[in-house]
Design a protein that fits this description.
The complex is a heterodimer of chains A (about 250) and B (about 180).
Chain A: H1 2-12, H2 23-59, H3 98-110, E1 121-128, E2 136-148, E3 151-162, E4 183-186, E5 192-200, E6 203-211, E7 217-224, H4 238-247
Antiparallel strand pairs in A: 1-2, 2-3, 3-7, 4-5, 5-6, 6-7
Chain B: H1 3-28, H2 31-47, H3 49-54, H4 58-75, H5 105-114, H6 117-128, H7 133-140, H8 144-160, H9 169-175
Helix pairs in contact in B: 1-2, 1-4, 2-4, 6-8, 7-8
């Protein structure tokens, strides 16, 4: 079977087009990435310095620290929609809309614990299919990554809401196998929750796909990659993930 | 990065680009997306080139970055694939259909894109890149036992799509 599968796979790539990858452009991106990293390290230093300064000001009588804001942090009035999603490949670019902002606001109300994710990068967006089909898709997430001894830990909380046309994979029902759901739960009102909890040395992920009776769906995931030495786990436990999925009312 | 290091990186990337694109294509099922994945991987490799160049096998390291970049992308909410989420247990083809109409390139491509990401990754790493179970497990961040299970499931999926009475591709060729 090995040889046969190999032959089939070989056959799939026999028509490989000439690569359109511009190495010079990628190297330039790599250089920029290096500069951004260097700047980020500097910004962390400045943030710490600003924090210490704020603390000192707060301790001084007669001085309100309200006007002291950490360097590099968005102000409270800044909309999440203004945050960049420029790192997304062009083909998957999404844009923030009124509906995706509404989803983000609803998540903030339903999951106040997310405020405890330090330095979370929040973003939201609405995705449209380029062919103009009615498949619509809202998403919002909070992601924080930090370096660990030999890699990075990514702590993330993601919510998606979509129409019946595209359901993201979570698990394959209760049939025994690698992708077996942890639980499939029928809920009042005709919804079905496909629950998949993954806990292993390589990371923790609690996710649920809630398919509503009208076919629209809500997907919620709470994840931490947890490489050795990391200190932060998935931001919300499994039961809260399901609770939040049930609480999302935004329609795609 | 020093000019000599950058030159070495450029030569490495130039030499390996096509192979990395092929691996990425088998994972993604789309050449444009494969280029996105490899582009992202190349930028990451550039950023850590000093470590990559000192690795025992820089090519294997590069392949690992490509696979993990792709897996990361499949996990990102707005990059999550929108193909069907469940591979049907029963053959998708009519048993009366002649074999030569079944295992065509387009069919296998579709079958691959319908497979769960990790099954597909195992298939590509083990059967296309000829990696061992242990090395595949290392790249995917799982146990060798899980790789064996995923392999078995992936092969089972392929077998499940073959017409009745045909259990291997050799049988299929004979039938043709």
């Amino acid at each position: 079977m090995r040889t046969e599968v190999r032959a089939l796979l070989d056959d799939l790539v026999v028509d490989q087009p000439d690569p359109a990858v511009d190495l010079d452009r990628l190297i330039a991106r790599g250089r920029r990435r290096g500069r951004i990293r260097t700047a980020a390290v500097g910004a962390v230093g400045l943030t710490l310095a600003a924090g210490l300064t704020g603390g000192v000001l707060a301790l001084r009588p007669g001085q309100a620290p309200d006007n002291v804001s950490p360097v590099g942090q968005p102000s409270a009035s800044e909309s999440v929609s203004t945050r960049s999603t420029g790192w997304l490949p062009q083909a998957f670019q999404v844009r923030s809309t009124e509906k995706s902002n509404e989803l983000a606001s609803q998540i903030e109300r339903l999951a106040p614990e997310l405020d405890q994710i330090p330095e979370a990068q929040k973003s939201n967006g609405e995705r449209f299919r380029p062919d103009g089909s009615p498949d619509r898709h809202l998403s919002a997430e909070s992601v924080w990554t930090y370096p660990v001894a030999d890699g990075r830990n990514m702590v993330a909380f993601s919510v998606e809401v979509g129409t019946a046309h595209g359901v993201p994979p979570v698990c394959d029902g209760m049939t025994p196998g690698v992708n077996q759901c942890t639980e499939v739960r029928r809920l009042p009102g005709g919804s079905t929750a496909y629950i998949h909890n993954y806990t292993a040395a390589g990371g923790h992920q609690y996710e649920v796909r809630l398919v509503r009776s009208d076919g629209t769906w809500v997907y919620v995931a709470s994840t931490a990659q947890k490489p050795p030495g990391s200190t932060h786990d998935a931001p919300l436990p499994a039961d809260r993930v399901l609770e939040i999925a049930r609480g999302i009312t935004v329609e795609p | 990065m020093k000019a000599s290091d950058e030159q070495a990186f450029r030569e490495f990337a130039d030499a390996r680009m096509s192979a990395l694109l092929r691996t990425a294509y088998l994972l993604c099922g789309d050449w444009h997306r494969a280029e996105d994945v490899v582009s992202t991987a190349i930028v990451k490799l550039y950023s850590s080139w000093r470590r990559v160049s000192r690795a025992d096998n820089p090519e294997a390291y590069a392949r690992q970055v490509v696979v993990r970049t792709w897996l990361d992308e499949t996990r990102r909410p707005w990059r999550r694939e929108r193909s069907v989420d469940i591979v049907p247990d029963s053959p998708a083809y009519d048993a009366d259909v002649t074999p030569d109409a079944v295992v065509r390139r387009a069919d296998l491509r579709r079958l691959l894109t319908e497979m769960p990401a990790r099954q597909r990754a195992v298939l590509v790493l083990r059967f296309y890149d000829d990696l061992s179970v242990e090395r595949t497990a290392e790249i995917l961040g799982c146990s060798p036992g899980a790789v064996k299970t995923l392999t078995s499931r992936a092969l089972g999926t392929i077998r499940g799509r073959l017409p009745n009475g045909v259990t291997t591709l050799s049988d299929l060729e004979e039938a043709m």
